[in-house]
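pinned: reference chain
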Amino acid sequence: MVLTIVIAVTAAFATYFLSKLRYFNALRASSLLSLIAYALFSLMSTHAELYSVVFFGGTFVGMSTPARFGYYTLTSAAVLFALLFHYLVPHLHGYGGALGVSAFLSVCLCQLAIVLGGPRSRKSG
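pinned: its structure tokens
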């Protein structure tokens, strides 16, 4: 569980920062980082498929937020994604459904919290 959270937060921040570079956008950042992560996980781990999917979902969170969220909110959304993904995988068939639903809900819940007056960080950049 802790490793899932660490992977999701790392993916979200890596996508967030890489998408700000001159020749990158959110889609290119997510694609490149996901390919690199899959290669690394397949070399290092017996759970490469799970960790790669969690990383890819974390990049969804990073793709969704560069213009709206600061660091605190991005971290909150990534942690929420990891928790939702962990608990939704057994209830939805395959990783795809849990991946999309978890990423969507985590970003929406964080945005809703901001709209309702919850804590938020300053937008970075």
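why pinned: The chain has a mean pLDDT of 86. DSSP finds five helices and no strands in the chain.
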